[in-house]
Amino acid sequence: MSAVNKEIKRITTHILQKMKTDGERISMLTAYDFSMARILDDAGIDILLVGDSASNVMAGHETTLPITLDQMIYHASSVVRAIKRSFVVVDLPFGSYQGNSKEALSSTIRIMKETGAHGIKIEGGEEVIESVKRIISAGVPVMGHLGLTPQSIYKFGTYAVRATDDAEAAKLLADAKLLQEAGAFAIVLEKIPALLAKQVAEELTIPVIGIGAGKYVDGQVLVMHDMLGINKEFKPRFLRRYLNLYDDIYKATQQYIHDVKSRDFPTDQEQY
Predict the structure, then answer these.
(1) In this prediction, what percent of the chain has a pLDDT beyond 70?
(2) 130, 190, 203, 270: which one is catalytic?
(3) Any idea which residues are catalytic in this one (predicted)?
(4) Mean pLDDT within 183-212
(5) Is 190 in the active site?
(6) How does the average pLDDT of the chain come out, rounded?
């Protein structure tokens, strides 16, 4: 852990900007509940994202579209209660901002007031710029999200790599610059070619955080359930599994079942 990381009590947008300037990589993971968020925060993670991926990993939906603003607020408030130093960002869920900057602001204000989070994340470029400006003018930090934007999955029709052709790559770079000009404090790039992500990170002064966007960006984010191996089905090229918790929990549960059925648990020492 570097010097910047050790000396700070709480991560802020100012600290994240300094990390980019100093060339220190930013670490980011998703979190959805108190117990896990406390572990990740204690471990020293820089940013915790309360992702609308809760729709998938917590609620079992096929896409991120069904999760509601109320549900995002429930997850976010649980996470915020756990943290001491991480910067907590909350996804604006599908339907809480699209096509209406006033609704985007009111959704954001609810998140900030009811959860105590530190900022929000919004998917899209030029089409959401008015919302981004309005939210920032209210004093709320905004993180952008370009490339594969899962809330638009039915428009794309696929979770494949984005911006592989020149036109889409040019739009992505232009959108990134628009978000920076509008005042976004950082941008997530999802599933785009590494060299395009490198260009974006070099041409922008704000931090660029990648997921499946290669090694040349300013930080990385993964979904906690994927990184810890709680999910078995999801195996994209960009995912590094640091644990295989599915198997560990499965075995522990089987052992518990065996111990209960064989009357091995509880023992004399485990009763009053």
Answers:
(1) 97
(2) 190
(3) 190
(4) 98
(5) yes
(6) 96
